[in-house]
UniProtKB/TrEMBL annotation, chain A:
Localization of this protein: Cell projection, Cilium
InterPro entries according to UniProt: BBS10, Chaperone_TCP-1, Cpn60/GroEL/TCP-1, GroEL-like_apical_dom_sf, GROEL-like_equatorial_sf, TCP-1-like_intermed_sf
Pfam family, one: Cpn60_TCP1
Subunit-structure text: Component of a complex composed at least of MKKS, BBS10, BBS12, TCP1, CCT2, CCT3, CCT4, CCT5 and CCT8.
GO-annotated molecular function: ATP binding; ATP-dependent protein folding chaperone
Similarity-based family: Belongs to the TCP-1 chaperonin family.
GO process terms (BP): chaperone-mediated protein complex assembly
Function (record text): Probable molecular chaperone that assists the folding of proteins upon ATP hydrolysis. Plays a role in the assembly of BBSome, a complex involved in ciliogenesis regulating transports vesicles to the cilia. Involved in adipogenic differentiation.
Key words, A-Z: ATP-binding, Cell projection, Chaperone, Nucleotide-binding
GO CC terms: cilium
Protein name: BBSome complex assembly protein BBS10
UniProtKB/TrEMBL annotation, chain B:
GO BP annotations listed: animal organ development; chaperone-mediated protein complex assembly; cilium assembly; developmental process involved in reproduction; protein folding; system development
Protein name: Molecular chaperone MKKS
Family according to the record: Belongs to the TCP-1 chaperonin family.
Species annotation: Orycteropus afer afer
Domain of life: Eukaryota
Length: 717, 570
């Protein structure tokens, strides 16, 4: 009974969390005020922050919060949605078991419930969930939903060009859930302006998002006490320091970075300096001074006008810098230094051992550097001449209180994280997952059924990618059966080919290989990862000369290395292999979006229901039904307060009708949201749920448990 | 090993604004700030029960610095006010009262918070657009050719802080001084951009307020010993100055992370002293007249310098270093030997001055951008208050240079703005609500709440139970004694409006502020002529008030938007 209790307990926890979170969800959501133990006050609508601020005691709640934060670390979005899904899933599970007791419901579900009860294994359900997540969900996304996907990129060109209007829609929808209603338009506008100012080319901006996500802390400045509308974007980089020395200079400015004090010190650490006489002391002081002077002189001769230092420089250095007309900024944080290094590719200047007249090579040009005063605090304002795609700009965020400024900062940072995810292709490596332990627990037949089913689906699939890649073809016409082992690194054009030709005269394959052969074929080229599935069942007897080349790959997902196993059957006309093979796109391409307002959920719901109807396996039907119904939770909450045409039932009916008659769906919302984000969210929720279902007892102990790796957290999707 | 302690769970409060506790706390805070507001505001005495410093004040910055609030919502409000004051110095109470009024007024209206927030935002943008526009009837452009308006502005600030305890004459004196001190910081040679100098406020307690004065240049307090050593200056030309930022006490810092070993018999002190005396010789050779040091000068060096008729001033402190180096044109020297001649500067003259019991060096620069304001007041608390007020006034003057406008003070801006909004929302609701889902009824309700918040803010200027009226032409603020007869001839009873721009003899009609009235178009009174004619206007800082209005509405919106308060109890 402890197991059933765990669902009930988890449901109670989830419902409490849901009631808090649902008030902050969506465009109508409201704010939460959190205080820190230090007395600081924070304003937030960020689900992750909110959950952490609660300092929950309940062990299950803590587990949920941990799952949410690990999800957030990855994607930067969706904490509130996470809780709502989670709660609805638990409710669904709970209802199934409850209904069984009441014996009031349709036979179908009742039998599943009894089945589960008989098994008395929540673990089994959990595995069913995981199986669903790893095997069925991905194919759904790839096949059914993909035809509804929109792209954030401009459709006119083939290149990935950022389209302002769709970016605006996307960011507006994002900020709707993150900042107060009266500010979201402004902040979203600020983000779009910022991006379009920072990015030189409108294409190939993935690395810019990476940089923005990593270094956003250094790229913004908060000012409390001014109205939010005073926030603005400044060209160039603003360092949160004041000049130690400021010498105005015109034109481009030569700059160096140092990470140590320029003035030599008497003794380095772990060494001893012995004074034997007064004269020696005076001489060494004189030497120190002369050397400092010489270094500063050589900097001056190199026409260096700005010295950025990560440490505090002694008075002497400052004095000579001032005499030499060199501006100095001291005590830069290591993050600031690394950001500058990253933007301009400049490495710190190493003090020469012997003072020579050699050119200092590690210099860079700065367009200008001047003090910037914000709220009577002085900052250093630089404009770097950036050779890379990123033109540094700085956001000045204003707000009446620090808490609000922090909220906007977090929201912007989250938005960059979200965009970074969006501009990456997301692999759906579901086939690889099929090979792990779950496989053994489910009967082999089960899998084949599914495969067959998927095959049918593929027939209708609109998205079929032409096979453009380099198929490893077998030139050897004599060999009857060949096995290639191609190893190549991830995200690169297949270059390292480790081919082992092992002629198999005896068509003997071990059982371990059998299920791999009809699996996947991964094709990687440039930075687009696509998995193309090959569904020709491998039949040993057909291994004859002159047959088609068929590639089967085995993925080793823990390293970025893929071992490709090419099981070849040869054909006289290799061209024909295109027609013989059917392909399926197995990745969410970069920039895929759907309209907001629960569109993703409604679509997935629809397809899952369809699937459940066709499905033979009882577990799958049940799991699909539960997930499908739980998915409706989000649109329900979003349309909670809406009346008339916008009320949830009407929207639902309209959507169903549109899908059945394959008309375009009409959305009441104008924003867009990332598909990859939604997909990752769903997988995270399922994983979290699976994790929690496997627990049957919660034991409280007095001391801290030893860190042991959880068996169930192995799934590394 | 650090002790690990389990974290206590936080306390989560649902819909905080509906709870009676929060409401009563807000109303207490509102009463505190409202009672301080304006020239006749009541003073607050802050002290702790164990006999610490007593602070008598009515200023928001001083009040909130020492006031500890516990509830997070109050923290938001007070933090917002403090941040506002730290940005623009003035209008802190204005912001806090308006914010409280808005929250209070809106709570009685049965609309969802989202609607309220949206409408508040619309009304705010209506206000700011009007206040920034040319047709605005409650702002006056500043005429820099005369000091009239600036003087009025400073005087209004001084009179609005009753805790300074100034008489009318003293107010006039101090405001003239503040204005003069400010004008001295403006460089004479204007480039394409102007860097303002600095006014240094020098405390001089136990003197009469009327003894306060302004001097160009800088005052540095002088000790008795220096006075004894002081010899009459011989030179009539400019004096050469060396300014050290490095310590001249012969101490020995920055030796590195390793160890230093001094062999027996080696006297480092004398070595250092030799070095200092060498430096002294160099200074004498370079014909330096004044040596100043941020830190300490070794007594031997001091002695040496004074025998060579060089004045040594040490312990200047880091705060004065920047104005000193700017004023004298020196570069702070960070080296003990080989000083470049280019780092010396000069002053026009150095004299000693005696104010009260204190003696000062008075450095007179060639070009004045630094001024010293000697502020006198009899008691410590009133001096603190006066100093804060003068700093506010100086900051406000700087802001006024950036945006050369002033608002009409004395409550007139608020009543005028309220009249404008009433008129606008009644006559053009469609254009205001364009692209918005809110209904006109909702707009009217919120506009009424917004206007009454502004009007009751103006009304809080009156603390003696008087009645508040507004005229039906300009929408200005008029106050009248409480014990007036019911049927009176208003023009006889009233003299001038709150800001002093209009007199009661202009054939106006009045109505009580709190009564219901027909909305009217507040007229623009030709401010140029009026401003020059009236010489005693009450004025407010444009930047500070505008920002205060925005911050107040934004803070109120923020507080109204709160669905939960999560308090961390760790």
């Amino acid at each position: 009974m402890a197991a059933a209790g765990s669902v009930k307990a988890a449901l109670q926890v989830a419902e409490v969390l849901e009631s808090i979170v649902s008030k902050c969800l969506g465009p109508e959501g409201r704010q939460v005020l959190c205080t820190k133990p230090t007395g600081e006050v924070l304003v937030s609508r960020d689900g992750g922050r909110l959950l952490e601020a609660l300092h929950l005691e309940h062990p299950i709640a803590r587990m949920v919060v941990a799952c949410v934060s690990s999800h957030l670390n990855k994607t930067g979005d969706g904490a509130k949605t996470f809780i709502i899904y989670f709660c609805h899933l638990l409710r669904g599970l709970h209802a199934v078991t409850d209904k069984e007791k009441d014996s009031l419901i349709s036979e179908n579900i009742q039998t599943h419930g009894r089945h589960w009860k008989n098994c008395c294994q929540w673990k089994f359900i959990s595995q069913a969930l995981l199986t669903f997540q790893t095997q069925i969900l991905d194919s759904f996304i790839a096949q059914c939903l993909s035809k509804h996907f929109l792209s954030i990129f401009s459709s006119s060109t083939k290149e990935r060009t950022l389209c302002r209007s769709s970016l605006e829609l996307l960011s507006e929808a994002y900020f709707c859930g993150r900042v107060a209603k009266n500010n979201h338009k402004f902040i979203s506008q600020l983000l779009c302006d910022y991006l379009f100012k920072c990015v030189t080319y409108k294409s190939e901006i993935e690395e810019v998002f990476e940089l923005l996500d990593d270094c956003f802390v250094e790229l913004n400045i908060g000012v409390a006490g001014l109205p939010v509308s005073d926030s603005r974007i400044i060209a160039g980089l603003v360092l949160q320091r004041d000049f130690s020395v400021y010498c105005p200079a015109d034109g481009d400015i030569q700059t160096v970075i140092v990470t140590e004090t320029i003035q030599p010190l008497f003794s380095a650490s772990a060494s001893e300096f012995v004074f034997n006489s007064e004269a020696q002391f005076q001489a060494s002081q004189f030497w120190i001074m002369e050397r400092t002077k010489a270094i500063m002189k050589s900097l001056q001769n190199q026409n260096i006008k700005l010295l950025l230092s990560s440490v505090k420089q002694p008075d002497l250095v400052i004095y000579y810098a001032k005499l030499g007309g060199i501006s100095v900024v001291e005590c830069l944080s290591s993050e600031e230094v690394s950001l500058i290094e990253r933007i301009v590719g400049l490495s710190p200047f190493v003090l020469p051992q012997i003072c020579s007249q050699h050119d200092i090579c590690n210099t860079t040009l700065v367009k200008f550097c001047k003090p910037l005063i914000l709220k009577s605090k002085r900052y250093v304002h630089l404009e770097l001449i950036s050779p890379c795609l990123f033109l540094p700009h700085c956001i000045v965020l204003c707000g009446p209180v620090q808490g609000l400024v922090e909220q906007h900062k977090d929201a912007l940072h989250g938005a960059f994280k979200m965009l970074r995810q969006l501009f990456k292709d997301l692999d759906l490596s579901y086939m690889a997952q099929a090979n792990n332990q779950n496989y053994t627990s489910t009967p082999p037949i089960y899998k084949n059924n599914r495969e067959n089913h998927l095959l049918k689906e593929i027939g209708n699939d609109s998205i079929q990618r032409p096979y453009q890649g380099t198929v490893v073809k077998n030139k050897d016409e004599l060999a009857t059966f060949q096995k290639h082992l191609v190893v190549y690194s991830h995200l690169e054009i297949p270059n390292v080919e480790l081919e082992t030709y092992s002629p198999c005269s005896t068509p003997k394959l071990t059982s371990a290989d059998t299920y791999q052969t009809d699996d996947i074929m991964t094709y990687l080229s440039q930075n687009k990862a696509r998995k193309i599935d090959d569904h020709e069942p491998f039949i040993e007897s057909k291994v004859i000369a002159n047959s088609t080349t068929e590639n089967t790959k085995l993925e080793m997902s823990d390293e970025n290395v893929q071992v490709t196993k090419d099981v070849g059957r040869r054909n006289v006309l290799p061209v024909r292999c295109k027609s013989l093979e059917s392909y399926r796109s197995s990745s969410i391409p970069a920039g895929c979006v759907l309209p907001v307002g629960g569109n993703f959920e409604l679509l997935l719901h629809y397809y899952l229901l369809n699937y459940a109807k066709k499905c033979q396996q009882s577990e799958e039907t049940a799991v699909s039904m539960i997930i499908a119904n739980a998915l409706l939770g989000i649109p329900k909450v979003l349309h909670m307060n809406k009346k008339g045409n916008d009320s949830f039932p009407r929207i639902y009916v309209r959507m169903l009708h549109a899908l059945q008659t394959s008309q375009p769906m009409v959305s009441t919302h104008t924003g867009l949201e990332s598909v990859a984000g939604k997909y990752q969210l769903l997988t995270s929720v399922l994983q979290c749920l699976a994790k929690i279902l496997t627990i049957d007892h919660v034991i409280s102990i007095k001391r801290q448990p030893q860190r042991v790796y959880d068996q169930d957290s192995e799934d590394d999707l | 090993m650090a002790r690990l302690e389990a974290k206590k769970p936080s306390v989560c409060e649902n819909e905080p604004l509906t709870s009676g506790r929060v409401r009563s706390m807000l109303s207490v805070l509102k009463r505190i700030v409202t009672s301080c507001y304006g020239p006749s505001g009541r003073l607050k005495q802050l002290h702790n029960s164990v006999g610490g410093h007593v602070c008598t004040t009515s200023q928001s910055s001083a009040l909130l610095r020492s006031l500890l609030v516990t509830h997070p919502i109050l923290k938001i409000l007070t933090a917002s006010m403090q941040n506002h004051v730290s940005c623009v110095s003035d209008c802190g109470l204005f912001m806090a009262i308006l914010c409280c009024n808005l929250i209070e007024n809106v709570q009685e209206i049965d609309l969802t918070p989202t609607t309220v927030i949206e409408l508040n935002k619309l009304l705010l943008s209506l206000c700011t657009n009007y206040l920034k526009s040319e047709v605005c009837g409650c702002r006056i452009p500043v005429d820099f050719s005369s000091t009239q308006i600036l003087l009025c502005l400073v005087r209004s600030i001084l009179t609005s802080k009753p805790a300074c305890m100034l008489t009318r004459k003293e107010v006039d004196h101090i405001s003239a001084l503040v204005l003069r001190a400010f004008l001295l910081t403006i460089p004479e040679k204007a480039k394409d951009y102007v860097i303002l100098g600095k006014t240094i406020i020098v405390p001089l307690k136990d003197q009469r307020v009327m003894d306060s004065t302004v001097l160009p240049g800088m005052l540095i307090e002088m000790s008795e010993v220096q006075l004894m050593r002081m010899l009459p200056m011989k030179k009539s030309s400019a004096l050469k100055v060396a300014l050290f930022c490095v310590s001249l006490s012969g101490d020995f810092s920055d030796t590195g992370e390793g160890t230093l070993v001094v062999s027996y018999g080696v006297d480092l002190e004398s070595a250092v002293l030799d070095q200092l005396l060498n430096l002294g010789w160099q200074l004498v050779r370079d014909q330096i007249d004044i040596v100043m040091c941020q830190k300490v000068i070794h007594p031997s060096l001091k002695q040496f310098l004074s025998t060579h008729r060089v004045i040594a001033i040490d312990r200047v402190g880091v705060a004065l270093m920047e104005p000193l180096s700017k004023m004298t044109g020196t570069q702070p020297i960070g080296s003990l030997s080989s000083i470049s001649p280019s780092s010396y500067g000069s002053v026009k003259d150095l004299c000693t001055a005696k104010f009260g019991s204190k003696r000062f060096f008075h450095l007179i620069p060639h070009e004045v951008t630094v001024s010293s304001l000697l502020l006198c007041n009899r008691s410590d608390t009133t001096w603190d208050e006066l100093k804060l007020t003068c700093q506010t006034a100086l900051h406000v003057l700087q802001l006024t240079i950036k945006e050369p406008f002033v608002f009409l003070g004395g409550g007139c801006t608020e009543t005028h703005l309220a009249a404008y909004i009433r008129h606008k929302t009644l006559n053009e609701p469609g254009s205001i609500l364009k692209g918005n889902e809110c209904t006109q009824t909702a707009l009217r309700l919120i506009a009424e709440a917004f206007c009454s918040a502004l009007e009751s803010l103006a009304g809080s200027l009156e603390h003696d139970g008087g009645e508040i009226l507004t005229d039906m032409k300009y929408g200005h603020f008029w106050s009248v004694q409480s014990d007036c007869p019911p049927l009176v001839n208003w023009p006889d009873l009233l003299s001038r409006c709150g800001c002093g721009l209009h007199s009661s003899q202009e054939e106006l009609s009045w109505s009580f502020l709190r009564s219901t009235r027909h909305p009217f178009v507040p007229q623009n009174c030709l401010p140029h002529e009026a401003a020059t004619s009236a010489n005693n206007l009450t004025l407010d800082c444009f930047t500070a008030k505008l920002s205060g209005l925005q911050v107040a509405v934004e803070t109120a919106n923020l507080i109204l938007d709160l669905a939960y308060v999560i308090e961390d109890k760790n």
